[in-house]
Amino acid sequence: MTERRKPFHETVAERLIEQLKAGTAPWQRPWVPGEPGSMLPVNPTTGKRYKGINAIHLMSQGRTDPRWMTYKQAAAAGAQVRKGEHGTAVQYWKFSEEQALRDEHGRPVLDGEGRPAQVTVVLERPRVFFATVFNAEQIDGLVPLERQPPAWDALERAEHILQASGAVIRHGEIDQAFYRLATDSIHLPDKGQFETASNYYATALHELGHWTGHATRLDRDLAHPRGSEGYAREELRAEIASMILGDELGIGHDPGQHVAYVASWIKALQADPLEVFRAAAEAEKIKDYVMAFEQRQVQEHGPQQEPDQAPLLPPPPTVAELSAAQYAAMKAADAAFGAALVRAYGETAAGDRRYAPSHDDPDVQAAADAFKSAADAWREAVADARHIVAGRDSVQQAIPTEEVSMQTHTDDATDPREHAARVEAWTLAHLMRDTLPHALASARLEQIGRARALLDEMQPLNPQNAFWTRHVLPDDIDALDDRIQAVIAPLEQLREEAKVAQARQAGDRAAFEAAAREAFDIALPHDWNGQVQVQASAELDFEGATHVVAATDLGVAPQFWSVYVQRDDGRYAFVQDFRHAQQAEHLAYRLAVVAANSTESAQAREAILARAHEDRVRRDPASTEADIAAASEARKTAEMNRTLADTEAQTHGAEAAAQQDSPSAQPAEAARTYLHVPYTEKDAAKALGARWDRKEQAWYVPPGVDSAPFAAWMQGGARDPAPAPSREDPGARRRVYLAVPYGERGAAKAAGAAWDAAAKSWYAGPKADMERLQRWLPDKMPAEQAPAMNPRDEFAEALRSIGAIVTGEHPIMDGNKHRIAVEGDRKGEQAGFYVVHLDGHPAGYIKNNRTGVEMTWKAKGYVLDPQEKARLAAAAASTLAARADAQARQHEASAQRVCRQMAELVSVTEPTPYLRDKGIRVHAGVFTDRDGKTTCIPAFDVDGKQWTMQYIQEDGTKRFAKDSRKEGCFHVVGGMDALARAPALVISEGYATAATNAEVIGFATVAAFDAGNLAAVALALHEKFPEKPVLILGDDDRQLELTQGVNAGRVKAQEAAKAVGGTALFPIFAPGENAYPAELAPITPPIYRAHLRAIKALEDAQQDSEGAKLTDQQVAALKGALLSDAQLEALARMKSHTDFNDLATRSVLGREGVERQVKAEAVRVIRKIEAQRERPPEQEKEHNSHAPLPPKRVARIA
């Protein structure tokens, strides 16, 4: 049998490991100062130096002559490789190639001189090539190596680099040389302590290599303690870079200070032979970054500059600065175009005429062409500028501390936008380093979810994506896409594991057991105390039964490894057996992470993780004594911090209890200030902040709200108690604590409630929506036992608390799923969902799909007797059955009526007003009335039956046929036969968007009519055409995110894509078109609701001439709640830039922008499916790497 040939990286790594053990690796050999370029390998034919791993590999051959060349190159130079000499392999990668340019018929295209034209093609899969080279010592006939004296002073050159870098360098503070990440500063002994000037500059440049790893430069992972594996990896990069720089400058290289890392380097290469490849590549980046300072002019300040001084060098130009001239030209052309439109059409019609495809007026057309050319020039300048900036730092704002970077909430004063930018940059940096799953290995659910969401935001991979306007898009997009796809599965696994921790922390037994089964495919006892044990096990046959015991007790080699967890009573429960120790240890570590993340104390979490890390290090046979000592010390420190934190918390709790028990600490209950509010003025009072007391049937002023605006309603009967004396600072606000049942915590949190860990209670947070939190105020929970509410009334109140509009027969308490309208729904929409049953103890589940808020509800004590429960269930069942039958008859009658009306319609031959306004062509299958005013779009199900019709009036008003079925119905632009021939299912919301997309991509597309119908249409078509890829082109309703709290278009499109395994794509507009201006005051759903209430109150007061008038103070307060004109204008602009038709007709990007975004993504999706069909089926992989052995035990002894 032929022995397997070792891969190149394994061969290189094995040789380097042996040399590291002997102390002869290239970067371990000291070089004295001398001639630059005398040690690093070079090809004398090309004059280029070998780089990266090729340089390391060639240097490891032990040759003294730096010249290396191929056999052919030696022959071309008149030399000859000696017989019997063996060459050395080097590798290089090819990322693009020249190919003959061909026309649409496949024929070669000739250039101006009649020769075949060439085009550079980026290879989808870069190719690796190997070459064999020989050292000059192996070749006869080569001229002797001539060493030229340097044309510069090496020390002056090194000094120039240090000064031009602008690094903060401090001397003499300590007798050590190091780089400190926290202060971004280099620390060196005094220059006089170095033996030679060359030693000083070699040391300084070594530390400058570490300095380049800061997040604002090359952004390497530097956050590792001295002596750790991560620290050793960074030292390897800096040491190789020092070797290269020392040869480049001729100042020598002294590796004597880094012998302590040899064991860690050997361990790293044994675990991952590719580590030295990465280290060599990053060392080349360090060298290039440092040598680039040679080209900079040094200002008066030297490297001793302190952090609070002005920077040595001006900041590099941004994309905006590099493209400023083109932007100014585009704005000037835009202004000229607008003036020409006003002159030709008047101010009223100028806005609409701007989007016309052409203009009869020659001056207007010339201005339009000039504006388009200027816009194109600006876009090209932006693209060029991004390439320039890409050559600088790839990530500017990443911070290396993982736990801080990925926090989804922060209590400090950091700008949320800055924090979000840091999280994005941190995620992108780890993605590019292939370390994202490792960096999130111990993260919480919200952190993993945020990283996963950012991966979705990175798509599509083009410069128009908002994400890639904030970050540099790498040149190799396919490689980036592969990286993203590669981390999705590991992140999903981490997310499932994090759900186990979340359920354990919440104390939800059922959810905990289900999550553990889903994440690990194991059964975890609900009373697990967080302890995990791995036992090397063996089987023992005794008295006819097979027992499992510790292998050490029998003195035999382990047969398998068992994982146990400890219960609260101290007993151990068996979890799973594994064939390999690494599998058992991996599960034990992941369970330790679950235990850590399910604790509320940060110190306890760190202590659990530190102990788990120490256990892994101790079990690793490759761990050194230094590794074990470092892990043990870290664990001791973490446990000490935990002990101190627990002591402090107990002391704080005792003091709080003492204060609470003190009579003086009990606040007197304040009487409410009730108001006399006429019914016609209730909206005005509510807009000012008044609340309704259901028991007293009166409005009142809630605590903490200024009562001055309510003066008109307080006369005569308001009961305003005298303020009690207070010892608190008048400016301080006491927390308003809430009585939130566990199942309702999600809804309370969404309304602004926050958790007080010390008090173990929810309270109204700084951004609380008190209107939403009324349900959980303590006064809603009377101390004395009151008659329980009827379950239906209680559940209706729960529905209203999450924004549901309870009308008619809702809630229906029959145990089935029901839809319900919520605040923010358009007519006919039902974005709410609930299911509630009356069996035993009434309970249910509610979700507002518009806001994402959900609630698990349980009745507070009302239990129905069997007769009442049976009566209600029977009534509900009868109601539902009757309604379903009536609706089916209604739908069928409406369908027949619509089909009869078709006879009165005519096919559209000339664009209707709607088609003209939307800038789309006439497509078959659309009808109109005799006057050509109304646009009629028939809707069919997947079997081709017409159920309804969408009617669009001249002014754009839309409606469907009365009492007709819309769910699951759609319209195909191009017809069903064309859809059957289409290579993909491309589904949009509205007809105009679908028609625009069909005109761009060249095949049939589907209109689902609205976001709520996307999933139903996608599922139906995917079932009919399962082989076609699905692309959902959704609407990006960012204005709804501000006013309603959820981007319905984006959410529904993503849900539809996920349901069929498809891809969701959203339009990317030019800067400022679909984004809320940062300089305006923010808009939130509570602010927007207050705006609407204020409008209604002011309108009602103006219309009701006989009612009580609002005071000037009340009017001023209501007007203060209104949004500004600038805010309303921003919302209107965002609303007019949501879909791909808006991109084509209202954006400066125009139809060309749609082509770039939609066509490219459609082609990518289609090619991906075709590639998957052509790929041979892989062998079925094991479903779970933790798959257990077949059960063999009769008894277990842990």
From TrEMBL:
InterPro entries: ArdC_N (IPR013610), DUF5710 (IPR043764), MPTase-PolyVal (IPR041459), TOPRIM_DnaG/twinkle (IPR034154), TOPRIM_dom (IPR006171). Residues 654-669 have a biased composition (Low complexity). Residues 983-1071 form the Toprim domain. Residues 615-669, 1169-1198 are annotated as: Disordered. Pfam families: ArdcN, DUF5710, MPTase-PolyVal. Residues 1169-1185 have a biased composition (Basic and acidic residues). One of its GO terms (molecular function) is single-stranded DNA binding. It comes from the Bacteria. This is DUF1738 domain-containing protein. It comes from Thauera aminoaromatica.
